[in-house]
Amino acid sequence: MSNKSIISTENAPAAIGPYSQAVKAGDTVYLSGQIPLDPATMEMVTESFEAQAVRVFENLKAVAEAAGGSLNDCVKLTILLTDLGNFAAVNEIMSRYFTAPYPARAAYAVKALPKGADVEVEGVMYLG
């Protein structure tokens, strides 16, 4: 695909596996899942669930901006939580980063996430 490009920024954590921070295909950007890694240190944020979720959305925001858009260009998010008891908290934190109309979204409880994270979020942006 000739209109495919890899998005990378130092303002978000480097990939910890064989994947890109994001891939742009035409006007669509696929944002890889972000966990609460501090991009400067590559250490996990662990103070609280809120601190983890804020770091995740900050990481997503940095990748979205590196792709030439913003979080409000997201059309779909997937949120992975190790404890659905944090569902209300993630909703409140997400509302700090998005304005209506909100993207489509799914949230799932999972047994575990990389590096012991409590939350991971991935997204799809449309820049057309």
Structure characterization notes:
The chain is of the alpha+beta class. The protein has one domain: 60s Ribosomal Protein L30, Chain: A. Helix content is 20%, strand content 29%. It contains two helices and six strands, in the order E-E-E-H-E-H-E-E. It has a six-stranded mixed beta sheet, with helices on one face. Helix 1 packs across helix 2. The protein starts with a strand and ends with a strand. InterPro entries: RidA (IPR006056), RutC-like_sf (IPR035959), YjgF/YER057c/UK114 (IPR006175).
Helices and strands, with pairings:
Layout: E1 4-7, E2 22-25, E3 28-34, H1 49-66, E4 74-81, H2 87-94, E5 104-109, E6 119-126
Parallel strand pairs: 4-5
Antiparallel strand pairs: 1-2, 2-3, 3-6, 4-6
Helix pairs in contact: 1-2
Give a short overview:
With 128 residues, this protein is an alpha+beta fold. It has 2 helices and 6 strands. The relative contact order is 0.24.
Give the biggest beta sheet: 6 strands, mixed
The CATH class turns out to be Alpha Beta
Secondary-structure-derived class? alpha+beta
Kindly, what is the distance between the CA atoms of the first and last residues, rounded to a whole number of angstroms? 18 Å
How many structural domains are formed by the residues? Answer: 1
**Can you list the strand order of the major beta sheet?**
1-2-3-6-4-5
Rough outline? globular
* CATH fold name: 60s Ribosomal Protein L30, Chain: A
Radius of gyration from CA coordinates:
14 Å
* Count of separate DSSP helical elements: 2
InterPro entries: RidA, RutC-like_sf, YjgF/YER057c/UK114
Family: Belongs to the RutC family.
Protein name: RidA family protein
Pfam family, one: Ribonuc_L-PSP
